[in-house]
Amino acid sequence: MDREKSDKLLINIEGRFFALELSEIARIVTAERVFLMPQAAPPVEGVIADRGEPLVVLNLKNLFGNNGKAAGPYAIIIARDGKRVLGLYCGAERLNFLWKKDQENGVFKPAKERFTKGVIELSGSEVSIVDCGALYNEASNILSQRG
Amino acid sequence: MDNSQFKAIFLQETYQRLSGIEKGLLLLEADPKNTSAPASIDKLFRHYHSIKGMCASMGYEKMKGFAHAQENLLDDLRKTGKGATGEMISVLLSSLDVLKEMTKRIEQDLPLDDMDPSSFIKTIKDIISSAGAGGARDVAPSIGLPDIMNVNKSVFDELLKITGDLIRIMSGLKPISARLKSIELKELVYGLGKNVERLRSNILSARMVPFDNLTETLPRIVRDVSKKDGKETLLKIEGADLTLDRSILESMADPLVHLIRNAVDHGIETPVERIGANKPGAGTITLSVAGEKDRVVITLTDDGRGIDCERLKGKAREMGMDREKLERLSDEEALMLVCVPGLSLSGSITDISGRGVGMDIVKNAVEGIGGTLKIRSVPGRGTSVFLELPRSASIIDVLFVRVGAEIMGIPSGRIEKVVEAENAGFAYGGKSIPAKKLKDIMGIAEEDKAAPKKAIIINAPKGPFSLLVDGVENEVNAYIRPLIPPFAKLWGVSGFTVTSDGRPVFLLDVAEVASRIF
Fold it and tell me: Residue B73, class by beta-carbon neighbours within 10 Å (0-12 exposed, 13-18 middle, 19+ buried)?
């Protein structure tokens, strides 16, 4: 369970906590706007160019919250699942860290919802761990629809 | 002795020689007495001789010995003047496959130890001794530098990417230079632009390779599949000197092999069936390549049994496809059912043994590079498959159009003209043509309710149509990159480019959009 207790980035979406493995985060960039991705449907927000390469951006607020409206400037977390890269937008919420030592008394439980791979119970609060691979597959499915 | 520095030259030369051997053996098979091309046995002999010499220089003893045995057989044929027998050709073709495999292993730095050509060598020796002995002299090995440099294709890919980036930077520099009043800067930008253009043109032409690079192995495939099925098939190749971008050609390799095998395996009938149908005993497959502006059309036609549309529809119904929709399909549309994964006529139309490539994969490969696939077939008369492809997928002229707050690119080569939107319906020689908002086609939310201002008239194979957009931006020479996961299968677009200000812009797939209009 060492992987479960690795350092994480903590995101608050409408009062609920989600975490991304720090090892799966390449960097966080700011974009003035997210551009059109033809045929895209929520939670695909659009596309940005990151270091000259196109990057599909998913709106986590669409996925895990009720308010999916996005507004710039956009702080975008660039998440990696192996060689697969995805941009994640989570609104203007402040980002925090959940260090390994903070998780020592946490209880790890199986995932309760889609696109997560587990839950950590910490002092009465629940933190869902985001499954970047599942998010990537979802983006791929949406963008493979035939128009 | 370390010969690794010569390995690339060895591989390049050997592959060329092996390809020459294949062509020569097939010619010899068609004309065993070698009357039409008396020099062809000499040519074949020289190919084996060169391979043997190069192997000796490089220390590939096993391959050298094997090439030597085959050279002996050719030498024997040359000296005795006896015609080549079917057995000889078969053993030489099988041996050629082993030589190819050995070369591939050398390329991959794999040992040749577990390859044992002794049974082939024995057969060759038996043939020679039964036909009257001969033997090649041992000749001093030689190796030389060819005029053509062997450069890994990744170098050209990288050069193209760099040129694409330079073009993007240039398009950002030009407006800045136009704004500033410095003559010096203007001259520098002009000079830079001219040289970037020269670079682009040279790299694109270096990437263009003749179509016949892809066709060299096809006669052998036709021969092998025909023999296996007890058929006789002639392969005609026309227009193979036309050049295409290497990446386009590469992506057509597997689809083409599949189509050819399909045509022989399932299209061409046996000689008995053909004669019974008042056709010549040998079937003919014609592969023709023709260029049209920036597109190329590859047509593969066979004079075989054709495809029965009604049977196809029947199979589709069995698969659970909507009966009414199937009834409404035209013949041309029904033929495209062969591209539905898993749909085959008694395992014969989309199944190609051992390759794992179906017509759906062929269609995907063609569409993946911005091409289109069409099929025409007349039962009893044969089938034609048309692949329309871009000639160069890399750097093309693109018109940027505005759709709401977004920008999309349309390949300039596909645009007939741009007119005011209000005239769109009658812009094509006074005739009414279909018009549709690009916004609606691409699923872009309509925030701005204002009517579209411009109409882009596009001439598609099924007829002209117009795309209504909110404005026309500029026309640029853009480096188009292929779609990549997770948007590799994005509908309606065939690639993307990144503009000088860092905006990703998608390139419209005109053929796919046209299919939605008509």
Answer: buried
pLDDT, one tens digit per residue, over A91-120 is 777 788 999 888 888 899 999 899 999 999
ipTM score above 0.90: no
Q: What is the mean pLDDT of residues B262-282?
A: 93
Instruction: List the structure tokens of A16.
Output: 């609920």
* Chain B interface disruption, residue of A29, A32, A37, A86, most B CBs within 10 A: A37
What residues contact B462, with CB distance under 8 A and at least 6 apart?
B514, B518
What residues are paired with A81 via a beta bridge?
Answer: A84
Structure confidence by residue, pLDDT tens digits, B291-304: 876 678 999 999 99
pLDDT in tens, B474-504: 888 787 877 888 888 888 888 888 887 778 9
Q: What is the DSSP string of B59-119?
A: T-HHHHHHHHHHHHHHHHHHHH-PPPPHHHHHHHHHHHHHHHHHHHHHHTT--STT---HH
Residues forming a β-bridge with A86:
A79
pLDDT at B133 over 60: no
Name every chain B residue with its beta carbon within 8 A of the beta carbon of A37.
Answer: 487, 490, 506
| SS3 state at B243 | strand
One-letter identity of residue A2: D
- pLDDT for residue A9: 94
Give the number of C-alpha atoms closer than 13 A to the C-alpha of residue B139, restricted to the C-beta side.
20
Fold held by B223-390: Heat Shock Protein 90 (3.30.565)
Domain ranges for chain B = 4-131, 153-209, 223-390, 395-515
The Cα B469–Cα B513 span in angstroms is 14
B4-131 CATH choice from 3.40.50.2000, 1.20.120.160, 3.90.79.10, 3.50.50.60: 1.20.120.160
Question: Superfamily assignment of B395-515 in CATH?
Answer: SH3 Domains (2.30.30.40)
If phi > 0 it is left, if psi is from -120 to 50 it is alpha, else beta; for residue B245 that is beta
**Minimum distance, in Å, between the CA of residue A85 and any CA atom of chain B:** 9
Q: What is the pLDDT of residue B446?
A: 67
B351 pLDDT more than 50: no
| Residues 6 or more apart whose Cβ sits within 8 Å of residue B237 | B212, B215, B218, B286, B287, B288
- Which of B488, B490, B502 has the CB atom closest to A38's CB atom? B490
Residue A68's pLDDT band (boundaries 50, 70, 90)? low
Return the exposure string of B476-510: e unless at least 16 CB atoms fall within 10 Å of the residue's CB, then b: bbbbbbebeebbebbbbbbbbbbbbebbbbbbbbb
Contacts of A86 in chain B (CB under 8 A): 486
Helices (H), B132-182: 153-179
Is a pLDDT exceeding 70 seen at residue B140? no
CA B56, B61, B66, B71: dihedral to nearest 10 degrees? 20
Q: How far is CA B167 from CA B60, B444, B477, B483, in A?
A: 46, 29, 7, 20
Q: What count of Cα atoms within 13 Å lies in the side-chain half-sphere of residue B488?
A: 10
pTM, to two decimals: 0.57
How far is B401 from B408, CA to CA, in rounded Å? Answer: 5
Chain B within 8 Å of A37 (Cβ-Cβ)? yes
Q: How far is A6 from chain B (nearest CA, A)?
A: 27
